[in-house]
Amino acid sequence: MTEPTPPRDEPTPPCDEPARPHGGPAGPWDERAPGVLRLPSGRLVRGRGLRRPLDPAAPLPTYGVYLLGRRPPDVPWEAHWLRWPDFRLPADREAARAVLTEVWERAATERVELACGGGRGRTGTALACLAVLDGVPAARAVAYVREHYDRRAVETPWQRRYVRTFPAAGRRGHG
């Protein structure tokens, strides 16, 4: 007799492809792949828009954080939903900091992705916060993401302000 599977605390986001095996431990993202941002520490994180289908030839993430206003459907990898409405800020800023810190930590050894609907505003904001955690000065983080990820990332004045005021306490820096 098998034990019942406990319910998942966090929903997972949409995926337009069937599950496929990961084939063992995950290596890093290909730095040249679309949407992959290299942080100054060398960590690689993929940002993407969920409205665009995944490339079937691309490796799957091992962990994804989905920045959406409503619960996303399941995907075949570990995922976390961070409630973050379009053109807005995270509903729970303390939770956002904790989740983004986990993303930063896991990006050292795993294929981690951040995604929202279009892959620019919320995703760009979250990537800029990762840059702050990685040691980029908060006042420079949006420019860093626009230079290395998408020139239109971080779409609203309040998203830019959120990055500038992203808590520096406990910042990890390079390493």
TrEMBL record:
Superkingdom classification of source: Bacteria
GO molecular function: phosphatase activity
Native organism: Streptomyces echinoruber
Comp. bias (Basic and acidic residues): 1-11
Swiss Army Knife protein DSP-PTPase phosphatase domain sequence ranges: 99-142
Region (Disordered): 1-35
UniProt-recorded name of the protein: Swiss Army Knife protein DSP-PTPase phosphatase domain-containing protein
Keyword Secreted annotated: no
Keyword list, A-Z: Hydrolase
Keyword Hydrolase: yes
